[in-house]
Write a structure and sequence with these properties.
Blueprint (H helix, E strand, L loop, with lengths): L2 H11 L11 H8 L3 E2 L1 H6 L6 E5 L2 E6 L2 E8 L5 E2 L12 E2 L4 H10 L3 E4 L8 E7 L4 E5 L14 E8 L2
Antiparallel strand pairs: 1-2, 2-3, 3-4, 4-10, 5-6, 7-8, 8-9, 9-10
């Protein structure tokens, strides 16, 4: 399995492997191991809503002890980390995903998508997949980016949130 497979599957289904919105946090932690809670959880306790638990580049937003959002963050870095459940046999990987490469992967998989005008402005662009409603946000690389294409959009984050 490659990073592109994981991203396209997430875009098509709204799931990252067995992880999905609505599942209990305890079930997600059974699959992934204990996550790193957001500092708000540490300060105010585990019952506070809307803050993520993180496993490297994977974050699960928690509301009423259930997963209400899933995100995969790449932030145009040259390497990133995802837990083995998400991307087996890879502690770190090349995380430089060009917008046009993801679009090609979605088109090849038959995953409908449209421009997300709410998050497309300036040096940022975004798409929203159908029917899974996964949002992908892209941007031009920052100063410290060492990629070969400084004028092209790279994937920063893909996320899905329940209402």
């Amino acid at each position: 399995m490659t990073l592109m497979n994981v991203l396209v599957d997430f875009a098509r289904t709204g799931r990252v492997g067995a992880l999905h919105c609505g599942m209990p946090l305890a079930e997600a932690e059974d699959l992934l191991g204990p996550g790193r809670p957001h500092p708000a959880h540490i300060m105010k306790g585990p019952e506070i809503d809307g803050y993520p638990y993180s496993w490297g580049g994977l974050s699960l937003v928690v509301t009423q002890r259930a997963v209400s959002g899933i995100s995969i963050s790449l932030w145009s870095r040259s390497t990133a980390h995802l837990p083995p459940l998400v991307l087996p046999d890879s502690e770190s990987f090349d995380a430089m995903v060009l917008r046009e490469d993801l679009i090609t992967g979605l088109d090849t998989a038959g995953c409908d998508h449209e421009v997300n005008s709410v998050l497309t402005f300036g040096e940022q662009s975004s798409i929203l997949t159908r029917p899974a409603e996964v949002c992908a946000v892209f941007s031009l690389p920052g100063r410290d980016h060492h990629g070969p294409h400084r004028d092209r959009h790279y994937l920063d984050v893909m996320h899905k949130h329940t209402a």
